C-alpha cells in the first residue's frame, strides 16, 4: 500500500489576480512535513479559450507581467489543455487518493490559489478551510532559514511546489529542533 501524505503543496499559474481568473496550469505535490518526503506530482494544463468563453477573466497587468517573463512558459500554457473544472476535480481526487483525510493544504497564499480553484470548481470544495496553510506567512517566521532553501520561481506549478516544500520543511524542522 502506498504511503499517505500529511500535507500537499498546491500552486497555480493564472492570467489574472481575481477569483474569476483564467487558470493556465495547476500543480500539486503531496509531502510529509516531518521528514520532507514528497510523493507523485500532479500537473494539469487548463484550456484558456474554454475558460474565456465561460466568463473567466484575463487581467491586463497580469498579461503584461507574463509578457516580461520567459516567453516559453507562457506560450506553452496557452495552447491545448483540459476543461478547468475537470482539472480541479482531478486535483481533488488526486489529493484524496494520496493524502490522509486530515491533509493540510499549503499554497502561497490560500487567499489566491485556493480561492481561484474553488471558483473554477463551481461545486462545493471538498476540503475544510481550517486545513488551509499559508506558505508566505509560515516562512516569514524564519525567513533567514527559508532563504537558504529558496530557488528562483520558475512559474511551473510543480517546480514552484517543490521549492515551497523545501522552504516550509526547513522552517518546520528548525522550529521543532529536527535535523534531517
UniProtKB/TrEMBL annotation:
Which interval of the chain is the signal sequence?
Answer: none
Q: Where is the 3'-5' exoribonuclease Rv2179c-like domain?
A: 7-170
Q: Which domain of life is it from?
A: Bacteria
One of this protein's Pfam families, by short name? Rv2179c-like
Q: Which EC numbers characterise this protein's activity in its record?
A: 3.1.11.-
The family database entries (InterPro entries) matched by this protein are listed as: RNaseH-like_sf (IPR012337), RNaseH_sf (IPR036397), Rv2179c-like (IPR033390)
The GO terms this record gives for MF are: hydrolase activity; nucleic acid binding
UniProt keyword terms in alphabetical order: Hydrolase
**Protein name, please?**
Exodeoxyribonuclease VIII
